Structures are given as C-alpha cells and as structure tokens.
C-alpha cells in the first residue's frame, strides 16, 4: 500500500461520504450536496468545548484521535500556534501550516494578522488529503477568517477537479497570499526556499501515528527554510521530538499548555525567541536516556512502521552503551539520595553499566551539576538546549572513563 493510501487521515466513513458528496456535485453540478452535508451528517462531527467542530481520525492500531483537542479546536489554534509566535507585524510575514486539516491554524493566523498588520501575509498550507481539506469547506466556520481559508482551499480543489462549483463567497484580501499544497508534507518541504518562513505550524497526529512528520530529516528541512528568528510550534511534549529538533540544529523551549497535562514544544534557530525552559526532568531524560533517541526518516520516504521499528532498534543498541536505560526513569535519580531500596538497586544496576557507581557518586553529580543553573525562564546564557548538549557530552566522558 502506498504512503498516501495508508496515510493517517480522517476516519473512513466520513472520508467516503465527503468523496461521494463532491462526486455528486461534479456529475449534477448541483450545490445542494455540499450545502446540506453538515445538517445531514452532523453526527460525524465532534463538537469541542468552545463550540468549534473536529472530526475523528482513521483507526490505527485500534486507536482513534480527533483532529483537535476536545478543549476547543479553534481555541487550540490561537493558544498553541499563534500566541507563542513573536510576529513582527511591521514586516511582511510568511507562515508554513503543515497538516492544515480543516484550516483552523491558518484561519487563526489570518485573524491575528488582520487585527495587527497592514503589510503582506503569505501562508503555505500543506495537507495530504483532499477529502480532509474538503471537510474544511463543510464544517461551520468557527471564526469569520475561516471563510477566507475556505475560499483558498476551494480554489485549489476546483483546480484539481475535486470540487466543481464555486460556492465560497469570501474574498481573499489583496495583501494575503494563500498557497494550498495537497500532498505529503515531506515532499513539499523539499521544494521550499531557504530562509523563508517566520513560523512553521506542525500539527500532525501523535508521534506514534505519524513519526514521519517528527523526524530529524524533516526537521533539517525546517532548519533550512525557517528564518533566523523564526519559530516552529508543535503541541507535543515528546522526548524524541524534542531531541530531533536539537539534532537538526534548533534551540528548543516549552510551548503553551492547553488541553493537555504538559506544555508543547517550540523550536527556533535563535534561543532568544524561546522564553521558557523545559522541565528539568525532561532535559535530563532527553540528554541521558534512550527516550531521547529521535525518529529518523532517511530519504524522507519511509513508512511510519519502518520509522518506529528503526527507532526501537536504535534505542535497544544505545541502552547501556551510549545512553542510560530509560527503565524506571533511571536518569532522573542522578544526584539524588534514594530511600526506596528496591528501586535504588534497579536504578544503580542501570547506572553501573554506564560507569556510574551510584546516584550520588562524583560521576553522577558531574553529569547533572549542569542543572544547577536551571531556571524556568531561559535566555542565551542559560537554556534547555545547551544543558542537554552539555549533559550528553559529560555522559560520554564518564562512559569512556575520563
Ligand atoms: C491533527 S490533524 C491537523 C488539524 C489541522 N491543523 C486543522 O487546523 O484542522 C493532522 C492532519 O495531518 C494530515 N496528514 C497526515 N499525514 C500527512 C502528511 N504526510 N503530509 C501532510 N499532511 C498529513 C491528516 O490528513 C490530518 O488532516
């Protein structure tokens, strides 16, 4: 099965209904199929807490995710993707919206831009599934600016002979240029210009469903196309994703918490753009344990399964060799006295394999004393990325025995 056929997109039942609706629109040239869709099939849409709608993903490994958090689909766009950006609205802005889905993130960006700027805005929206983009035309707009996004999506769906009628009445303002790409984002990024984007919104399904959109190779493309002060925002707090950003040459910082237990992730070539450090234990785990092994997708064309399996293999090889075992969260006990004797024995057995005699040995303290200057607010002289890289270096030295 090709990657596209297998792609992690909306659930099969609504996918078929949408395709059928647009096929009927084409054969009949009648607008009623599209106009009646939401009322007829409203039970396929998931109402989120702020009144905006989401839909379900395909079932993958017996799991279904919604495209957005239940806390509020459009609120999520503003909170996670717009608020952390430090747009300089005295200049033209360029945004890359990866996994554009129903178009909420781009719509939120347009709303914020129109409120604050009279310059030019360019948005490149990338989504692998025509039916998902088409679903964006069928869902009630949560904010008026979604109608602008819908117009751009409709234009592209007509150009690709998927939609037939021009039913969207909004006008795209002259200073806003929206390009719509319907393809695998891994393809799209390879054709984009160097040093071109102020912001990249990265909004795939979770890392286990779509590791190919969180790989080092994908992020290296981001590093090439993002401006020096640009920011990548993604909702996940996952260790391999954060490690992947660092390996690709980014600084990382904590993103906003919205609808989840933990903050997401921001990445930028410029550390000054990232205000908040990751929690201490996240830094330690990324630096020292095998959970900090990133996803790899050499050639940017591997399947999700291949990428997950290859990472599992790399973790296995790294454990007790270049990385402390992540079992029982071993690395977070470095530098700590431990009361629980049973846990302590397990932790110290893992540490011994890395030439660290105990949690409070000089070796252990040498590695984690890097955390002594930790503060939640970060800057160029004290930040998560530098600490992670330094702890990694120190672990290597200790393992080598010098
Ligand atoms: C969590 S949803 C995104 C929601 C979206 N940002 C919105 O505002 O509605 C993830 C999206 O990623 C898309 N997708 C999956 N694999 C992709 C790929 N390789 N390239 C581009 N889009 C992809 C899915 O079709 C799905 O619409």
Descriptive labels:
alpha/beta; Rossmann fold; 2 domains; two-stranded antiparallel sheet; 15 helices; 40% helix; 12% strand; binds S-adenosylmethionine
Which second-level CATH architecture of the largest domain applies? 3-Layer(aba) Sandwich
Q: Sketch the major β-sheet.
A: 7 strands, mixed
Determine the mean pLDDT: 95
Distance between the termini: 50 Å
Q: Which runs of at least 5 residues are low in confidence (pLDDT < 50)?
A: none
Radius of gyration: 23 Å
Strand order of the largest sheet: 5-4-3-6-7-9-8
**How many separate domains make up the residues?**
2
Q: CATH homologous superfamily of the largest domain - what is it?
A: Vaccinia Virus protein VP39
Content of β-strand? 5-15%
Give the % helix. 40-55%
CATH class of the largest domain: Alpha Beta
The dominant shape is elongated
Ions, cofactors and other ligands present here are:
S-adenosylmethionine
| CATH topology title of the largest domain | Rossmann fold
Could you outline the blueprint of secondary structure elements for this entry?
Blueprint: H1 3-6, H2 12-28, H3 32-40, E1 46-47, E2 53-54, H4 73-82, E3 93-98, H5 104-116, E4 121-127, H6 130-138, H7 146-159, E5 176-182, H8 185-190, E6 197-202, H9 216-225, E7 226-234, H10 239-247, E8 251-254, E9 265-268, H11 280-288, H12 304-318, H13 341-352, H14 362-368, H15 384-400
Parallel strand pairs: 3-4, 3-6, 4-5, 6-7
Antiparallel strand pairs: 1-2, 7-9, 8-9
The chain binds S-adenosylmethionine.
